[in-house]
Every structure is written in C-alpha cells, then in structure tokens.
Design brief:
The chain has 167 residues and is of the alpha+beta class. Helices cover 53% and strands 19% of the residues. It folds into two domains: 2-17 and 97-165, PH-domain like; 25-92. β2 (98-103) and β3 form a beta hairpin. The longest helix has 42 residues, at 55-96.
C-alpha cells in the first residue's frame, strides 16, 4: 500500500506525548526535581516566617515566592507549546510531503522533493504504539514514523498489526 501521510500540529503534539508516555514509570527524574524545588521553597519561606522578627515581611516573602512559582509554571507551560510549534513549523514540509510504501517486509518512503529517503524492516522498530488515529512506529527514542489510519482500510490496519507482531 502506498500512502501520502499528513500531520497537523495537534497530531504532532499528541504523537510526541505518546512517545513519552511509556517511559513514565511513576514520576520521572525531572518531575521529582520540580517537586523537590517546590517543597524546598515552601519550607524555606515557612521557616523564615516562623523565625523572622517581622512576621509580615515573612508572609510577604512567602506570597512572593508562591507567586513566582505560579508565574514560572505558567511561563514554562506556554513557552513549551511555543517551542513545539516552532519545531513543527521547521519540520512541517518534510513531515507532510512524503510518500510511504507499507509492505509485509517493512516500510520505505521518500520526500516528494527527493531530499529524504528511508527504509525500515519491521524488526527495526523499537516500539509500536497504536493511537486512536494512527500507528506510531519508533526506530529509536528520538524519531517516529506515523501512519494515519484514515489512509488505511480495516484490512490494512490488521495487516500492519500482524506484520509488526511477527517481529
């Protein structure tokens, strides 16, 4: 089967999220670091409030630290989305202008302009994730091939599941 897959920003975002999901076994290191920093700031200002000669000044410091944490969290959330959109725009042409051939032996493809070609056997994929709207194949932790289900019949979808499970 030969398809020309397209991906929107929302699909790109969902794909990257799905790539990270199985790697989360409870809390990741970064998450624990964030939680630890928040706890340290909280207890530092709490100790300051208890030991300070000026309780109003300590309360003000507590409010300022809390407001700073909320501002940093909010900024981080929006900045991450901004950077992700920028990354998508840089890759949009390559992601949306390719032809992909899917066979029993694997997947091959090329960019329409001829700048990129690839060929993978099914055994080359480290992970296989079935999303509601696509199959996500990961040859490594940093790259993906996304096969939109909208281009596939029910029989084609079942073939992909079987081909992948044989490896």
């Amino acid at each position: 089967m030969l398809i020309e897959p397209k991906i929107t920003f929302e699909q790109y975002q969902a794909t990257l999220k799905a790539m990270r999901e199985p790697n989360k076994a409870g809390f990741g290191t970064r998450h624990w670091l964030r939680v630890g920093l928040i706890v340290i700031f909280f207890f530092a200002t709490l100790i300051l409030a208890e030991t300070s000669a000026d309780p109003q000044g300590a309360a003000l410091a507590f409010v300022m630290v809390s407001a700073s944490l909320v501002a940093l969290w909010t900024f981080g959330t929006y900045y991450t989305r901004y950077c992700l959109k920028k990354l998508y725009r840089a890759q949009e042409q390559q992601l949306n202008q390719q032809q992909m051939a899917i066979t029993e032996s694997g997947i091959s493809g090329n960019a329409v302009d001829g700048t990129v070609t690839y060929s993978y056997k099914w055994s080359a994929f480290e992970r296989f994730i079935e999303m509601p709207d696509a199959f996500l194949l990961l040859p490594n932790l940093a790259t993906f091939l996304r096969i939109p289900k909208e281009h596939l019949s029910a029989e084609d979808q079942e073939n992909i599941r079987q081909w992948r499970s044989r490896q």
